[in-house]
Fold this protein.
Amino acid sequence: MNDMPTRLIKPCIAMIFALAVSFIPLGLCGQQLFTMPHLSQGYDVEMTVTCESEVCNGEGTVRLLRKNTHELVQEFFADELFFIARMPMKPDSTGSIMIPHDYEPILIDDINFDGIEDIAIPNGRQSLENARFDVYLFHAQSKKFILDSGLTALSGNYEGRWTIDKSKKTLSFMRKDVTTITIAEYAWIGAKPCIIYKSEESRIGNDWIELIETTYRTLRGKQVIAKVKKQRLKL
């Protein structure tokens, strides 16, 4: 077989490199501006934070903008705005980077089930790869998003982003350690999230799992244990 002519080698190498770059995250360094146009039907989001390669961390600013008019609704500040960019990152002609849907580090949703969108912003680390969240609930009277200390503290007790079940009006959190996976479910009772269910799944040796399920009920304004079920399951 004849060798490839020398004049074709460099163009081929350049084309292969260009294709490779288009499928890997672009290493970033310094302060970056990210946009998130798919988070909400009513808002666009801009986020400014310092990045090194795919890790973004440090003081950051989040700006909530009215969709279509681009009017500033509210600005939020975080001492340690942390996220890992798990997607290709390449600035557009304006210098900003659009984060694709389902990769956004910020959550905009109806967190307290009052029919109005709220916002959760990563601020600090819960583990090596999981952020803690500052949770802001929208208050109709002031027409502002106000930090909710209870939900923010609750987020810090678990890992990563929680799951919202709108049909059951519950929030589900998860925490993992070396041997145990804990899942906790909270419902809104008396204008605050209250635990209603918890499961703890622990590995016992190589062949068994111990599952402890606890349900809670409200008694005199407090959550008390209603039932505990223990099982040992074979793998």
